[in-house]
Specification:
This protein is mainly alpha-helical and 152 residues long. It contains 5 helices and no strands. It is 77% helix and 0% strand.
């Protein structure tokens, strides 16, 4: 449990910080290109808050929540009684549900197609990375089990 909480905390911090940096870069480039006052948050999300600054802070927290969810849900891969495909399906369904909730209902990115495509692409890359890492770990575990059984 301690390891899972550590993963969640670290991932929350990394995701929040990475989101902050990406938003700063996008905002700086767009503002420098002649669109002063641009903030890389969907207008619909920005309208939910009294100030754009508060919307930006909440947006950064949501990046952290997404990262923490991706990291925290990896505990499902430690449940050895479940097969890998079942683990992966549970992981995907829970994390994707949260991501779609934030992306579509909170950020309302479906109103900004370019942002929606970029965000969903980021999710896809994350799923691929986690899938490869977990599959490699599974292969290593199986190999160790086979070695210990053949040595008996």
């Amino acid at each position: 449990m301690k390891e899972i909480l550590k993963r969640i905390s670290v991932s929350f911090c990394i995701s929040s910080f990475a989101g902050l940096i990406v938003n700063l870069i996008i905002d700086a480039l767009v503002n420098a290109a002649g669109n002063p006052g641009f903030i890389s948050i969907s207008p619909a999300f920005r309208d939910l808050f009294p100030t754009p600054v508060l919307a930006a802070y909440i947006n950064i927290l949501l990046y952290g929540v997404i990262g923490a969810t991706f990291a925290g849900m990896t505990f499902i891969f430690d449940v050895r009684r479940l097969g890998y495909i079942i683990q992966w399906c549970i992981y995907f369904l829970i994390t994707f549900a949260l991501c779609i909730f934030i992306t579509v209902f909170l950020w309302e990115l479906h109103k900004v197609p370019q942002a929606m495509v970029c965000t969903l692409s980021g999710y896809a890359v994350t799923y691929i990375i986690i899938g490869v890492v977990e599959y490699r770990q599974l292969k290593t575990d199986i190999s160790e089990i086979n070695q210990s059984l053949s040595g008996v």
